[in-house]
Amino acid sequence: MDAKQALNRVLTCENLQAYCDYYSISIEQIKQEPKIAVYILEHQSSLEEMIAGYAQMSTLNQHICAEFQQCEQECQNRIKRIG
After folding, report:
1. pLDDT per residue over 1-11, tens digit each?
2. Does residue 23 sit in helix, strand or coil?
3. Alpha-carbon span 5 to 83, nearest angstrom
4. Is the CB of residue 19 less than 8 Å from the CB of residue 47?
5. What Gene3D superfamilies does this protein's entry cite (predicted)?
6. How far is Cα 4 from Cα 77, in angstroms, rounded to an integer?
């Protein structure tokens, strides 16, 4: 795949902004240097796995926070009574 084809594919990716954030680049930089798009596509599967992993972790973190919310509230109330 040449750089121009890679650029067209990358610019239509659902997670383009996540790729830009990960590599600390802008969409404009990718447009100006299409070889960056080739690099992104070469590593796309790893990035997609990482994105999926973070999405799963966020769900788990929400459950953990929900479980400890009551405990946190009890601690806050106890601190208010003591202080």
Report:
1. 899 999 999 99
2. helix
3. 65
4. yes
5. Met repressor-like
6. 61
User: Are residues 3 and 37 in contact, defined by beta-carbon separation less than 8 angstroms?
Assistant: yes
**Dihedral sign of CA atoms 73, 78, 79, 81 in order:** positive
pLDDT tens, residue by residue, 22-81:
999 999 999 999 999 999 999 999 999 999 999 999 989 999 988 889 888 888 998 989
Tell me the one-letter amino acid at 56. Answer: Q
Specify the pTM. 0.70
DSSP code for 2: -
Length of the chain: 83
Residue 57's nearest CA partner among 65, 68, 46 is: 65
